[in-house]
Design goal:
The chain is mostly beta strands. The protein has 1 helix and 15 strands.
């Protein structure tokens, strides 16, 4: 069985843990299946990138890695792949509450990289090694953010974008309409978001 989890941890400016919340995510979307289909079947699959452009994945190789990214600038990965997508690759944050649909292709209201009003600083993302634990096998994808905007930011939406072909492509989206599920990051605080993809046999 394939399962997906999301964890949100808020830290104070001295990196002391303030709050932590982990829960099941049900938000794999159509693009995830499309990339898997292309990799397994070598057949063309049409999907939308994060900017809404139609991309027909028909290359010899479709990469499904989530690169280490420096927010706002170039993206560098351990695979020496370089792209210009900046904070649109890896885990992203948003303020949208629209119900998740299988046809989603972007974070509805993405919070941009920066330290201005309504912005948050994106640090590099990371993929951890695969862990085998009894009947479970999993790996974690994580990213740290810092709020330097001068006021609190309320985060209502999370997502994960990978590179498919040469384009940033969203494969996971979580959105929360209930205020009790939102994550508030005060000025100066840090947020760590972790997605865990797990297989149980």
């Amino acid at each position: 069985m394939l399962s997906l989890f999301i964890q949100r941890e808020v830290f104070d400016p001295n990196m002391r843990l303030i709050s932590s919340r982990a829960e099941l995510s049900r938000s794999f979307i159509r693009n995830f299946l499309g990339i898997l289909y292309r990799n397994m079947g070598r057949l063309t699959f049409s999907m939308l990138d994060v900017d809404g452009n139609t991309r027909s994945l028909d290359q010899d190789e479709v990469m499904m890695h989530c690169p280490m990214a420096q927010g706002g600038g170039f993206v560098f990965t351990q695979y020496s792949y370089i792209d210009q997508w900046g904070y649109k690759i890896g885990i992203g944050l948003g303020t949208g509450t629209a119900v998740v649909s299988a046809r989603d292709y972007c974070i509805a209201a993405i919070i941009p990289h920066g330290t201005g009003v309504g912005e948050i600083k994106y640090f590099g993302g990371n993929i951890n090694d695969v862990v085998i634990d009894g009947s479970d096998a999993y790996f974690d994808i994580e990213r740290i953010f810092q709020n330097g905007s001068g006021s609190s930011i309320i985060i209502k939406e999370f997502g994960l974008a990978v590179i498919a072909g040469d384009y940033s492509t969203l494969i996971i989206r979580d959105a929360y309409s209930d205020a009790g599920d939102w994550t508030t990051v005060a000025d100066g605080e840090y947020l760590k978001v972790t997605y865990r993809i797990k297989v149980t046999v």
